Structures are given as structure tokens and as C-alpha cells.
């Protein structure tokens, strides 16, 4: 398998990085999920230190990319993600 080429024709392994998961916040989400395999939204928000809005946006991108599965439901009367 050959390395991706830069504009000057030189092969570079850095060109093969998937920017979707290597953005720092999304990489942190993936690293945390790798360790625990499954986590709820509140755990990730506290662990990573992102606001709920930012975490939601990053998780949506990871889900659209097929990297994570988001399940939503209720615990009692409260929503649980």
C-alpha cells in the first residue's frame, strides 16, 4: 500500500490521517470511549470538559462518520443519552 502524496509529489504518512477523528475534541471522545467502551453523555461532558453543545456537535459528526453509535432513551422520566 502506498503513502498518500503531497502537492510536491512526496509521500507523507501524515496525509493519511482522518481529520474527522483526529480533531482534538473528537480524538479525546474516541480515546475515552476506547477505554470504557460505553459511556453516557454526562460522563463524557465532565470527563472531557466540553460544553453540552460542543460535545453534542462533535458526537453527531462521529456518529455520521460511523465511528460511534448514540442511543437515546429515558431513565425514569429523564432523557438519557
UniProtKB/TrEMBL annotation:
Domain (Winged helix DNA-binding): residue spans on this chain:
26-81
Give the matching Pfam families: HTH_34 (PF13601)
InterPro entries in the cross-refs: ArsR-like_HTH, WH-like_DNA-bd_sf, WH_DNA-bd_dom, WH_DNA-bd_sf
- Tell me which Gene3D superfamilies the record gives: Winged helix-like DNA-binding domain superfamily/Winged helix DNA-binding domain (1.10.10.10)
Its source organism is: marine sediment metagenome
- Tell me what this protein is called: Winged helix DNA-binding domain-containing protein
